Amino acid sequence: MAAQQNPIVLQNQTDDLPLLLIHRPPFFTILPLTHLLSRHFHLLDPHLQPPSPSHPLPLDDFLSLHAPSLRAVVVVGIHPFTADHLRLLPSLELVAGTSVGTDHIDVAACRRRGIAVTHAGYAFTEDVADYAVALLIDVLRRVSASDRYVRSGLWPVRGEYKLGSKLGRKRIGIVGLGRIGSKVANRLRAFGCRIAYNSRKEKPSVPFPFYSNVCDLASESDVLVVCCSLTAETHHIINKDVMKALGKEGVMINVGRGALVDEQELVRFLMQGEIGGAGLDVFENEPNVPRELFDLDNVVLSPHSAVITPESIESMTKLVLANLKAFFAGEPLPSPAQEDQI
Ligand SMILES: O=CC(=O)O
């Protein structure tokens, strides 16, 4: 048993609870999650083990120590979980993700080993959809820019701020009509927008026009809302041709993943006024955001927080626990990850 080989586990393990590895970035607030999970599992968190919290064991050493007994890992946020991690965990059978996207997990390598992968299912769907709409209204009506204008004392000096543009009747192109995209579509339809979409496949039950080509969708849209999963096929799906087709007045909202958009091209298009504006919650190299965007008032920036509310964290936490319990009980998993399902 690993506990006998390993004083680090023995020191803390006074119960028969199953071991669970928490794979997370160093600075991530997951208190509700770990609090709930610690009632059902013996948590192994490399960041909280000796030699000291500020000098944790290197992850590889930590994993090698605990590897033989670990059947399940919780991957927190979008912390990469790669084939190298998998190699260190010969007994692994479940990777339970806390995010809806699984692009940071080597799902193909998991599948080859018969390791199940679960994700956040519907836990974040509504909050992300709300946020996409919020970013769009902010860009169109210049809410954040107006706020900066007032706070900087310019109103009495320069008078009215630049007018924004109306949301109603805008032609919205949704890239990825999955869980999130569908909710965005329903919300924007209620504002009187016209919806069309691009997806891997046409969805016969959907009342919106389908475009198999993103460029064609962009040229028929005032706004693109990007909400598909990041895969090899969708990497840089928003490239310079798509931005050109979207045009000088066009607005792009990205609540999917940074790498869905060719960020260098996006910066160039925005700087040169070749597209009208952008609302971005995700970036190619988070938490680094291209500095050129900081001075552009037609761009709204957000630190990958569309998914997070206390309510969505609670739903996600319950779902992660349900997946783990089902796994250890040998029952069907509530939210197995499937491609193209964000
Ligand atoms: O970006 C967040 C998620 O995929 O849940």
Summarize the structure.
This is glyoxylate reductase (NADP(+)). With 342 residues, this protein is of the alpha/beta class.
Q: Give me the Rg, rounded.
A: 22 Å
Shape, per Cα inertia axes: globular
Number-wise, the strands total: 13
Q: Which runs of at least 5 residues are low in confidence (pLDDT < 50)?
A: 1-12
Tally of DSSP helical segments: 14
Count of the domains: 2
Output the CATH class name of the largest domain.
Alpha Beta
Structural class by helix and strand composition: alpha/beta
Q: What name goes with the CATH superfamily of the largest domain?
A: NAD(P)-binding Rossmann-like Domain
CATH architecture of the largest domain: 3-Layer(aba) Sandwich
Q: What oligomeric state do the depicted chains represent?
A: single chain
- Roughly what is the average pLDDT, rounded to an integer? 91
| Fraction in helix | 25-40%
The ligands found in this model are: glyoxylic acid
CATH topology of the largest domain: Rossmann fold
Tell me the fraction of residues in β-strands, as a range: 5-15%
Sequence of secondary-structure elements: HHEHEEEHEHEHEHHHEHEHEHEHEEH
GO molecular function: glyoxylate reductase (NADPH) activity; hydroxypyruvate reductase [NAD(P)H] activity; NAD binding
Family: Belongs to the D-isomer specific 2-hydroxyacid dehydrogenase family.
EC number: 1.1.1.79
Pfam families: 2-Hacid_dh, 2-Hacid_dh_C
